[in-house]
């Protein structure tokens, strides 16, 4: 084993400083971390080798405040870094994201070895705050209360060469009693359609073939612009971008899910037959307590309309079990809605208190053992439905976009993995022809499990794509320059001498 000083020399060669970002929470946080990586690399840092586990010059925690134990997880991780920091002169720790926005000074009082605390509205300040902390030798806490600049103008180091997140709005105007996000990310602010489309076109020019439109309430897009049909218009405009093969979006709200959006999904060929729409509960009583502005009948009506317009659509959802006041009858209403909706999959959660939300102080908090028992019943039902719905895919011929890192057993099984148009995970037999992430293969589904499909026969066809070319170019660059700069991927283990980080070619984020 190497000593702490040996490790420091290993990852900080030639005076180049390394960084590591640990991300918790939703897709918005994942995309924010891509921006934080871009900012740090523009400032001269390089990504630490995979598996560094805190052994970097700068460690950034991009936090989430959604779960009850989010702060415990953060302080536990910070505590594990404290001794490393004492033996590594110049090491800095930064905490950002939703929990930082919420707790601010508390973080530094509980973990005084933290150098920087920044919020959800000012992630662009991270390099400046790190430098200020270094010069002044004291913690820097800067939490903006409102958005300083739309984050998509920031440099971005994207994790994928073939698929990309594109933010269309930030913030949320809803007041769900279980959610603290609007208080931390602010009111909804929409980007101009022209800016969004220009970013997508630039990404496609770089080789990206799949984009996911992101918003806290993505289909409310337009409320800030005064256009109720802005989201459906945006979907149709994406259909006009040559070379853009797949368009997805997450997460919509049933309140804003209008018929024009369903029509745009059905009539725009590159908008994928997939919908993730959080239901949260099937009980009208609980939905009212949650301040969700729809009821079970409205939700199931949307599902019916989507399936009528897009018969092969895969629909997924989020469900909370054990919300305060939930009776057995309320829970049975959720089970009924799940049977009726027949979701391809569901992300199910046991209710946990979010400090600062109205629900945390509500009467009728459900005992943990009751919540657990209901949760297990719901999971069992959804597993049964997911498996039955996946079995309907057997015999179908699907176009699968080859993915990177989706199949944990691919090496052992001599298979590759990717996503069908409806976002189902497909494992398929590796063809003799070379295929790369971003390429598209045609396969016949031969077997279904609850959470994936298998195509055990030979691949029918392979289509090499510009997205695959982009992946190959980046991988080749990584082999030549294992520094982890904007278009590179770091090797595992001790890297070769690191060149200075490059300024990103495109600052569209």
UniProtKB/TrEMBL annotation:
Full protein name: tRNA-2-methylthio-N(6)-dimethylallyladenosine synthase
InterPro entries membership: Elp3/MiaA/NifB-like_rSAM (IPR006638), Methylthiotransferase (IPR005839), Methylthiotransferase_CS (IPR020612), Methylthiotransferase_N (IPR013848), Methylthiotransferase_N_sf (IPR038135), MiaB_methiolase (IPR006463), rSAM (IPR007197), rSAM_horseshoe (IPR023404)
E.C. numbers: 2.8.4.3
Radical SAM core domain segment(s): 158-389
Originating species: Streptomyces flavochromogenes
Gene3D superfamilies from the UniProt entry: Methylthiotransferase, N-terminal domain, tm_1862 like domain
Residue ranges annotated for the MTTase N-terminal domain, each copy included: 17-135
Cofactor note: Binds 2 [4Fe-4S] clusters. One cluster is coordinated with 3 cysteines and an exchangeable S-adenosyl-L-methionine.
Chloroplast as UniProt keyword: no
The UniProt record lists the keyword rRNA processing: no
Binding site for [4Fe-4S] cluster 2: 172, 176, 179
CDD domains in the cross-refs: Radical_SAM
Catalytic class of the enzyme: transferase
UniProt-listed PROSITE patterns: MTTASE_N, MTTASE_RADICAL, RADICAL_SAM, TRAM
Membership in a protein family: Belongs to the methylthiotransferase family. MiaB subfamily.
GO molecular-function terms, A-Z: tRNA-2-methylthio-N(6)-dimethylallyladenosine(37) synthase activity
Annotated positions binding [4Fe-4S] cluster 1: 26, 64, 98
Residue intervals of the TRAM domain: 391-459
């Amino acid at each position: 084993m190497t000593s702490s000083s040996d490790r420091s020399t290993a990852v900080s060669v030639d005076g180049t400083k390394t960084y590591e970002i640990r991300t918790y929470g939703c897709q918005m946080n994942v995309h924010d971390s891509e921006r934080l990586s871009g900012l740090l690399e523009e400032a001269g840092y390089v990504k630490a080798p995979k598996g560094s586990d805190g052994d970097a010059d700068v460690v950034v925690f991009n936090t989430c405040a959604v779960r009850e134990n989010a702060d415990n997880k953060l302080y536990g991780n910070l505590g594990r870094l404290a001794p490393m920091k004492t033996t590594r002169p110049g090491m800095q720790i930064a905490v950002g994201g939703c929990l930082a926005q919420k707790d601010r000074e508390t973080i530094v009082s509980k973990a005084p070895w933290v150098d920087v605390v920044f919020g959800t509205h000012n992630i662009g300040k991270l390099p400046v705050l790190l430098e200020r902390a270094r010069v002044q030798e004291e913690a820097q806490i800067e939490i903006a209360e409102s958005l300083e600049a739309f984050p998509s103008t920031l440099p971005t180091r994207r994790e994928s060469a073939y698929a990309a997140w594109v933010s269309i709005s930030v913030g949320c105007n809803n007041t769900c009693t279980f959610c603290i996000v609007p208080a931390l990310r602010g009111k909804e602010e929409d980007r101009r359609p022209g800016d969004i489309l220009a970013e997508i076109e630039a990404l496609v020019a770089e080789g990206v073939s799949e984009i996911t439109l992101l918003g806290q309430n993505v289909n409310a897009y337009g409320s800030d612009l005064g256009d109720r049909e802005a989201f459906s218009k945006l979907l149709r405009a994406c259909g006009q971008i040559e070379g853009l093969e797949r368009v997805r979006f997450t997460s919509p709200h049933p309140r804003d899910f209008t018929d024009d959006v369903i029509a745009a999904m059905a009539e725009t060929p590159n908008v994928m037959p997939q919908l993730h729409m959080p239901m949260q509960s099937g009980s009208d009583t609980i939905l009212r307590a949650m301040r969700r502005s729809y009821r079970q009948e409205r939700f199931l009506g949307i599902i019916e309309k989507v399936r009528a317009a897009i018969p092969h659509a895969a629909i997924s959802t989020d469900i909370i079990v054990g919300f305060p006041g939930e009776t057995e009858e309320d829970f049975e209403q959720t089970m009924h809605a799940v049977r009726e909706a027949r979701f391809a999959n569901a992300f199910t959660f046991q209710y946990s208190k979010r400090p600062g939300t109205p629900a945390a102080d509500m009467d009728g908090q459900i005992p943990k053992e009751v919540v657990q028992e209901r949760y297990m019943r719901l999971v069992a039902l959804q597993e049964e439905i997911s498996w039955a719905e996946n079995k309907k895919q057997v015999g179908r011929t699907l176009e699968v976009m080859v993915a990177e890192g989706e199949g944990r057993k691919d090496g052992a099984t001599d298979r590759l993995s990717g996503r069908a148009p409806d976002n189902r995970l497909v494992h398929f037999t590796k063809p003799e022809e070379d295929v790369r992430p971003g390429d598209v293969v045609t396969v016949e589904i031969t077997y279904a499990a609850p959470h994936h499909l298998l195509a055990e026969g030979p691949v029918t066809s392979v289509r090499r794509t510009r997205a695959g070319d982009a992946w190959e170019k980046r991988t080749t660059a990584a082999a030549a320059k294992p520094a982890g700069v904007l278009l590179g991927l770091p090797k595992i283990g001790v890297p070769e001498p690191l060149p200075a980080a490059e300024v990103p070619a495109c600052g569209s984020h």
